[in-house]
């Protein structure tokens, strides 16, 4: 009996999923073991050190194509399942399953919940080098050193001090007598007054910070 065209399509979609599973197993055989485990995000910075880590739960692990110059490869899409469309999907599958393994990274789906509800997100994981976002880890201890260094840096340079002001650019505390005053000129846009030229004096730790601020305001 001839297979119905819709069934053929369904089979191809299933096949595509199996290929993805296959790639994941080859790329990171133990990846699925992470499902249900906690993942930690550190938002500490030397300007704002903090011991608090965000806790997320890993809900799924899959694969994601690397962002290459050639762009992403997608399965053909159509509202109508015709014979011709099926042929294009078959051609795609044949090409897709032969892609080299290094076309892909691992993708962690994560979820967190607070009093406002659930938030979903995802993270790219490169086998051999870890999460592309370096503020993320499976082990909260990984951040201990960073938070310690942030606190030291904060105490040394950024903590508000008597007789000092914070540089507008880098946030470092500068003794009032050493402040570099610089006239900033830039355009701003306001819904009430429209485009305006702003002209004001900024306070900086150095001429470099003043110039960098002026340049960033010019866009
Ligand atoms: Zn500065």
Describe the protein's architecture and organization.
- The protein has helices spanning 5-27, 83-97, 144-158, 207-218, and strands spanning 38-42, 53-65, 104-114, 117-126, 130-131, 136-137, 164-166, 173-175, 180-190, 194-204.
- It is α+β, with helices and mostly antiparallel strands.
- The chain folds into two domains: 5-154, no CATH class; 160-218, no CATH class.
- Strand 9 and strand 10 form a beta hairpin.
- Helix 1 packs parallel to helix 2.
- The mean pLDDT is 93.
- Zinc ion (ZN) binds at residues 167, 169-170, 172, 204-206, 209.
**What low-confidence regions span 5 or more consecutive residues with pLDDT below 50?**
none
Rg, Å, rounded = 26 Å
- The share of residues in helices is 25-40%
Q: Would you report the number of β strands? A: 10
Query: Please, what is the average pLDDT?
Result: 93
Q: Tell me, what's the shape? A: elongated
Ligand set: zinc ion
Strand content: 25-35%
SSE series: HEEHEEEEHEEEEH
- Whole-number count of domains: 2
Number of helices: 4
Distance from first to last alpha carbon? 66 Å
Spatial order of the strands in the main sheet?
5-4-3-2-1-6
